[in-house]
Amino acid sequence: MTIKPQPLYIAHNLSPAYQLRYGWTGWPSEGSFPTKLPPSFLQELAQLWEKDGLRLLEHAWSPQQISLTFSAIPEISPVLLATRVKGRLQHALRQESKPIKFSRKLGVRPCLSTYPRNKQGQIT
Q: Are the beta carbons of 111 and 25 closer than 8 angstroms?
């Protein structure tokens, strides 16, 4: 009788590691984005995006544009990322009584970080 070896890795107990990073940029169609928001605003949004398979890594917010960097699970397409980020952001701004119309142009780019960086974040 031959003993069949058991697999070391089984799908139900794995948590895959991934490094799919995307940059998302949005612009207002008219006016400007609000600059005074509660500190918890992005934290609450980040929790919702986590449920979508997106992890907020960095953000830059100005009246002219919002730039966000996300890590995504492999099942998330760039199109889904674009719609979830804009949709949740627009809804959250409406909830804060600061509705804003986004421009239809959005920027979604893959982020490749293969170069070493110094403490200021510059490529060395």
A: no
Confidence at residue 29, expressed as pLDDT on a 0 to 100 scale: 93
Given a contact cutoff of 8 angstroms between Cβ atoms, the answer to whether 53 and 76 are in contact is yes
CA nearest to 66, candidates 29, 28, 120: 28
CATH 3.30.70.1290 is held by the domain 17-110: yes
- pLDDT of the residue at 15: 67
In the block, residue with structure tokens 């979508």: 52
- Mean pLDDT, residues 28-34: 93
Q: Where are the domains positioned within the chain?
A: 17-110
pTM: 0.76
